[in-house]
User: Fold this.
Amino acid sequence: MKKLFAVALLAPCLALAQGYPSKAVRLIVPYPAGGIVDLMARSVSDGLAAKLGQPVLVEARPGADGSIGMEAVARSEPDGHTLLLGTLALAVNPHLSKVSWHPVHDFEGVAHMGVVANIAAVTPSLGVTDLKGFIALAKSRPGQINYINPGNGSSPHVNAELLQQVNDIKLVSINYKGIPPAMADFLNGTVPFGFFPFGTIASQIRAGKAQAIGIASPVRHKQFPDIPTMAEQGFESSQVNSWYAFVVPKKTPRAVTERLNKEINATLAEADTVARVDKIGGTVIAGWSAEQTTKMIADEVARWSEVTRKAGIAAK
Assistant:
């Protein structure tokens, strides 16, 4: 009898999964088009669409440091037709300001996608070539060096905050809506320092318009083997892991989440996807379960609660 009752409860979910997706799937990017999150989303959208049998439409919903796009997904119908490509900001934003959503209570993880190395870079006019030189300069000029903040809670933002916290320096945050709008001020030296997602700064480094002083990654990147990691320079505790993960609204049927997890992981395992992600400086992490992804996000929420409190940037 109990088994029959369980089957009866599962029947609607199984029927939904069999008919899923019944229309185009929206993949929400909570930052401007053309930025690194948008590029990461587009690296998987075509492959995922082929497997789901429906278009996967990448939709930029920037604003409020990513919170507008996150809220849109949290409040959407939990039927698997609206996904968020979540980043570190998903775990950090609630600690920085009042938001209408919660990263654990309003979302469920679907699959990990990977990480993108952030490169610490300065304009050549600053006259430093490594992190030790930059830290020494910042100590000699407290509160006088501007840095790019492409969005509160973004990995470049919290990496800069962590760098200050660990090394006892004071930089000035200049806020932008993403990296692209900040690039002109960086190149002209008005805001001469920042942590940049790999794909947003690579061409400037190659052209000599930006000086890389370290990379937040366990290993050197094969496209720039001469850029030392932060750990190599003695700054391992100052770096942030910039992760990307797919999430859906809470109460999305389990069968739908499992279908998405299967197809996303299959897309991530394809050579074409790996090559696309590698081109923008990322590393694919395939094979995570929905449960692992959900736990990772919860762990990040707890970790950054402490970091933001110590940095004095936590919401009051």
